[in-house]
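ingest -> validate -> predict -> emit
validate: passed (alphabet ok, no gaps, 412 aa)
predict: started
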Amino acid sequence: MSSSTIEAEAVTDRELEDRFHPIFDRIAEGALGRERDRRLPFDEVGLLRDARFGALRVPVEFGGFGASVRQLFGLLIDLAAAESSLPQALRVHWSFVEDQRLAAPTVHRERWLRAAAEGTLVGNAITEPGVGAADRYQTTLRRGDDGTWVLDGVKYYSTGSLYADHILVAADRDGERVSVLVDADAPGVTQTDDWDGFGQRLTASGTTTFSGVVVPEDRILGPGYGAPGRTYATSYLQLVQLAVLAGIARRAETDTAEWVRARTRTFTHAAADLPRHDPLVQQVIGKLSAAAYGARATVLAVADELDRLLDAGGEDPELLDRAEAAAARAQSVVIGLVLDATAQLFEVGGASITSSELGLDRHWRNARTISAHNPLIYKQQSVGAYVLNGDPLPYAWSAGQRQSVRDADAPA
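emit:
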């Protein structure tokens, strides 16, 4: 597929598959080794950057692919099946591009869309440790002595920023939330790969420190994440996590089926001489396959809701609530399917299936880790309150100490 074809019209599913699936296959080849050695996939991110994977949602008039939300999330599921850390690492890049697509036409909007079309990637620094941002960010943007804007603060869960060219930072400016874009290699930016979760180990979700980082006026982008009111961004960002789960389920199905096909050992009371002919083993594989299919179908159904919302401009209250509720409901469905399936896969064999050389445990660990984002119990409660009482959906979620807790900890 030539670049002229891409720029002439929106890309087709087949063109996207032909372009990116061979890259995903290359990425998948080293997934187990990277997991075992905890080697961050810089080279693999380079393959995606060179192929302009980050340009999927950039409109064709700015040099992008003009892909639909459904096409994007179909590919994110495929990428997650190859390497589950990568879609999560790129999560905020997609919402950054979407923000530019929805913004009023300006020279800055065109600048960032064209940069994304050429391969530029955006990471994030939103969540904070400790006190956090339950009501306001501790990271600050202030005027320096010379009149320039200066950024100071510490962020945790800076997912994907080690792979990115720019970092989208959430900060407080005189009591108001503000979003700024900082070069990843700017003076005063320090990134540390200290994420220690037992899953999703290669997302580069570590600590980022900003010490006197100068921020040009044109890098201040508005209120950003956490601003009150309805937004497409919550459902969009959550759906990336669900796409990761769908990809994990598919890889778990593939890996487990391959292991069973090659296995000749069985048990004296098994129903067949070979495990692949055993109806109980077949049932487990069938359950894995159903989980992968159901998770993918659910993710793409929510993507369709987002396509309708964003095609209409991203501000229609009814469409916003439909997308937000759909993503929250999907979280309950997909998490349940994938966690259960990745735990049950071990029933197809004896103790040998737990071998660290096989690494099949990584599927459950990765699924369990990413499922903890935006805890499910709160999503289920918010949907229940919405259905029963018409309570507003909460949209943006922040983590940190609430005011009452901080007051209680204050000295008398």
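The chain has 14 helices and eight strands.
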